[in-house]
């Protein structure tokens, strides 16, 4: 039985740290080797609430707010997924972390690719969920529709619920668990609001993502996962990622779309945690409070 209480837990005294010219907000739970959780498009660190509840029993879970989301500083001008990876790369040593397990979903996975390619010595393992090596015309069309909806509605949260949810969650989940869909919607509305301007910057980074030429530089053991029914980052990207990242394994979550972290929570946690635990012993336990 899925425990949705994780969505309702209150946060107090969230730590912040100045890195790469911005002040970044982050959450930390658990003990053990560091596991850095990178959010997806429009989300803040709390998007991994269901995962941290389990992962923190085994790892020091550090989930962060990317620039322009949550309580991390907003910045002017365009930036790329590589720039976001540079933020994470600066964040790690600022917390005294020399090597960590890295996990990202969607945009978080795109950032993880750049991080692992540019800083292989700092990556104990890499988990790429619903990832893609280079944005294609189909993805640009999908993300472009999110941008238009956000502008028209004047609200990123309402755009996420109206436009992104149907891309991320299966029709079967909507039919079987309408109350759960409403809980997820209430959770999105409860988080610090991302401005439409910040969403445009972040979604433009998604549309410009191109790490195709970086995949061969990734040396960390890597888990690549997709939802069987994901359309945006479908399994059309599975073979290029698997071939490009030598030390990788592929896992498909049946009956899921773009958000197995919410669609099949227990299965997602169990299988991803099993991968992470295979690579324990390669990252020093951080001395951070």
Can you characterise this structure?
- With 289 residues, this protein is of the alpha/beta class.
- The protein has one domain (4-278): Alpha/Beta hydrolase fold, catalytic domain (Rossmann fold, 3-Layer(aba) Sandwich).
- It has helices at 49-55, 81-94, 107-118, 137-153, 156-168, 171-176, 178-190, 196-207, 238-244, 260-263, 265-278; strands at 16-19, 22-29, 34-38, 60-64, 100-105, 123-129, 222-227, 248-253.
- α4 runs antiparallel to α8.
What's the topology here?
Elements: E1 16-19, E2 22-29, E3 34-38, H1 49-55, E4 60-64, H2 81-94, E5 100-105, H3 107-118, E6 123-129, H4 137-153, H5 156-168, H6 171-176, H7 178-190, H8 196-207, E7 222-227, H9 238-244, E8 248-253, H10 260-263, H11 265-278
Parallel strand pairs: 3-4, 3-5, 5-6, 6-7, 7-8
Antiparallel strand pairs: 1-2, 2-4
């Amino acid at each position: 039985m899925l425990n949705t209480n994780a969505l309702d837990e209150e946060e107090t005294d969230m730590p912040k740290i100045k890195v790469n010219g911005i002040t970044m907000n982050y959450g930390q739970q658990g003990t053990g080797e560091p596991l850095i959780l990178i959010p997806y498009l429009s989300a803040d660190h709390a998007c991994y609430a269901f995962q941290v509840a389990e992962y923190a029993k085994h790892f020091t879970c550090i989930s962060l707010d990317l620039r322009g989301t949550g309580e991390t500083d907003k910045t002017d001008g365009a930036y790329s997924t590589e720039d976001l990876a540079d933020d994470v790369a600066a964040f790690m040593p600022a917390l005294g972390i020399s090597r960590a397990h890295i996990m990202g979903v969607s945009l978080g996975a795109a950032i993880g690719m750049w991080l692992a390619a540019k800083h292989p010595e700092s990556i104990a393992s890499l988990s790429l969920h619903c990832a893609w090596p280079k944005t294609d015309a189909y993805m640009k069309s999908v993300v472009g529709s999110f941008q238009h909806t956000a502008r028209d509605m004047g609200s990123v949260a309402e755009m996420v619920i109206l436009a992104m949810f149907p891309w991320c969650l299966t029709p079967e989940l909507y039919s079987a668990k309408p109350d759960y869909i409403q809980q997820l919607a209430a959770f999105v509305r409860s988080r610090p609001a991302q401005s439409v301007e910040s969403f445009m910057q972040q979604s433009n980074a998604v549309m410009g993502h191109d790490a195709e030429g970086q995949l061969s530089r990734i040396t960390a053991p890597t888990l690549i996962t997709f939802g069987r029914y994901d359309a945006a980052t479908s399994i059309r990207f599975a073979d290029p990622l698997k071939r490009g990242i030598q030390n990788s394994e592929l896992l498909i979550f049946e009956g899921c779309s773009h958000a197995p972290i919410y669609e099949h929570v227990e299965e997602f946690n169990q299988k991803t945690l099993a991968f992470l635990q295979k690579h324990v012993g390669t990252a020093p336990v951080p001395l951070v409070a």
